[in-house]
Amino acid sequence: MFKVIKWVVVSRSQLLNDLLETRWPQQFLVKLAKVAPESLEATMNESSYSLVVIDLATVDVQRAYQLQKQIKKRHSARVVFLHYPEQIDARFLISPITAAVFFRHASLEQVGQSLIDVLRGQRIIPAQLLLAENDAAFDDGSDNLTIREREVLQALLSGSTNIDIANQLFVSESTIKTHLYRVFRKIGVSSRGQAIAWAQTHLHEVQQ
């Protein structure tokens, strides 16, 4: 019996959803589900989807990171990112289940042609992003962190500001800034958002 291939498109753009609906079902013989980010988990629990396409033009990269993490943990689908930003460092999105990445300038024709290779099991990821998987920032470098640096990262995960962290640890705000500077260098990130994403993946709960 012929098995229907199912993909999910995660986007808040009705225009993009309409464009894809006119192309991909015929081109790839797939059934498309089009959902907002908050509806993805419920949709994937209802049926078996092999590919999740996330539109980074309408889905925040941190939200996309969380979605991909959920997919990896609970489902067997692979992930494709459309409209990948070139102006910010979002390499933390690249994971073993990332099947393809397309920058903003990629046309739907180019995306469609590349997805043919994705269906054959290939990964379509720009070289500069693929290298990120081997960077220190994506290794579990938590062993290089001091106990205090782990505590600072743990506080970041809870959404604390520098002043909040300083008060929690009974030190000055400038001391916290110094800790964060050292942490960022050790784990290879350049922003609080990236540090939080790294910590969510690699940091174990600080033992008291």
Give the SSE order as H and E letters: EHEHEHEEHHHHHH
Number of DSSP helices?
A: 9
Order of neighbouring strands in the sheet with most strands: 2-1-3-4-5
Shape: elongated
Note the gap between the termini: 57 Å
Task: Please compute the radius of gyration using only Cα atoms.
Answer: 19 Å
Which stretches are low in confidence, meaning pLDDT under 50 for 5 or more residues running?
A: 134-140
Helical proportion?
Answer: 40-55%
What percent of residues are in strands?
Answer: 5-15%
How many strand elements?
Answer: 5
Query: Could you describe the largest sheet, including whether it forms a barrel?
Result: 5 strands, parallel
Instruction: Briefly note the structural class of the backbone.
Output: alpha/beta
Descriptive account of the structure:
By secondary structure, the chain is of the alpha/beta class. It is built from 9 helices and 5 strands; from the N terminus they run βαβαβαββαααααα. A 5-stranded parallel β-sheet has the order 2-1-3-4-5, sandwiched between helices.
Descriptive tags:
208 residues; alpha/beta; 5-stranded parallel beta sheet; 47% helix; elongated
